[in-house]
Amino acid sequence: MNFQTHFTALKDALNSSVNLWQYEVLNGYPDTLKYYPEQWLAYLDQLSPQELYTLDNARDLSSLPAHAFKSWAQDLQQLTKIEKFKVHEEHAPIPKKALLNIKLKKQHELNYLKRLFKQYKIPLRFTKMLDIGGGMGHTSRIFSHFGGPPCICLEKDQGLIDRGREKLKNLALPTGAQAFQFCQIEFGNNPVHDKKFFSANVFSLGLHTCGALANKHIQAYLQNPGGGLLNFGCCYGKLENQQEQNLSQFAQQDPLTFEKYALTLATRSHAEMTFDDFLLKQIVKQYRYTLHLYLYEKENQKKFQGLGNTPIKIYREGSFADYVAYNLPGQYTAKDLNQFYAKSIPLVRKLFLANIIRWRFGRIIEQYILTDRCLYLQEHQRHVEMKELFHEHLSPRNIGILAF
Fold it and tell me: Phi-psi region for residue 327, left (φ > 0), alpha (ψ -120 to 50) or beta?
């Protein structure tokens, strides 16, 4: 991949629609709606629930009726389509007993990582491995015990380390297993301390490194004689300041910066859902939008008010008044609330459709951030690859950056 070309294309697409992706639909209401073309909203309003689900779930859009919006959405999909790491089926997959009590998502990731490492002969090239933010040590254990080099799990949460050590007591070591160890450390906060883990024969893995931890992983790799790196970013909403964005000199020439709402969009988008999940999401949005409109009109409350988690049963079986009573008990009458809800249906529908448009940008923002990291590595004379590895329906944050 030509990272400069890809980055420029992503930036151009984002530059042309800043007002759509930078803020949530309700932030800045009612001004935000004026940025969404009426023809697009009218087109979406004519789609069936199943067609809206197809669009919102980022699936094949070819079955949707022809329209300028459809062409635009397909162009965005094509822009973010990147190669996959080519990995063969594993003749000796990880034994099922070694994966007991590990979630299906994690099992899938471990099997694909093992196949990727074998394909790239990573265990042969490096004699040690670091697992950055490795939690209970599942990844470290699997690679140490099943064909990989000895691994060190770097984790800041002592509770997770203790649980990982407890799990080890119930597992028999397979033949040829390498030892692995835990190290309690908040990686990236002490460069002197981090340095002792890196050397030319060390490969470091950051599997779903939240926010700026991905940057810290990359920078530690570059500042020390590390032999190789594989990083999967996630939780982009935890990038706390602009210094944690636009790392590369190429990006800094004409940078885009993302507010927290755009970064959250990059984190949450591209996750597959069922049709039932989509219908539930629609009710959740309807109630949440209506409450905001009610507070906006009745109490002149312009700022979006955060709420806690509402039980799913209220969305499925309750009314809008039940929803408000749960979140803001004793403040409003059911009759007034339900009348307002009925009156607001057309506007809330428009807000929901605008949100579907906005979510088309999540993958683009994510790839802007990841491609910038690739450029940063490339500017430091590293060979870099950025490709998809995991199946997105199981692990939507599936884009890995490989460098050596």
Answer: alpha
Distance CA 156, CA 167 (A): 18
Structural domains of the chain in order of their starting residue, each with its CATH number: 3-77+273-361 (no CATH), 96-264+363-403 (3.40.50.150)
DSSP state of 157: -
Would you state the structure tokens that stand for residue 63, as one six-digit string?
């079955």
According to the 3-state scheme, what is the secondary structure of 3-29? HHHHHHHHHHHHHCCHHHHCCCCCCCC
How do residues 173-183 score in pLDDT, each as one tens digit? 888 888 889 99
Residues 6+ apart with CB under 8 A from 263: 236, 237, 238, 239, 365
Which DSSP helix (H) or strand (E) runs through 210?
A: strand 202-210
Tokens of 149: 């080099």
Per-residue pLDDT tens over the stretch 117-148: 888 877 667 889 999 999 999 999 998 998 88
CB atoms near residue 97 (< 10 Å): 9
For 90, residues 6+ apart whose C-beta sits below 8 A from its C-beta are: 111, 114, 115, 118
Amino acid identity of 74?
Q
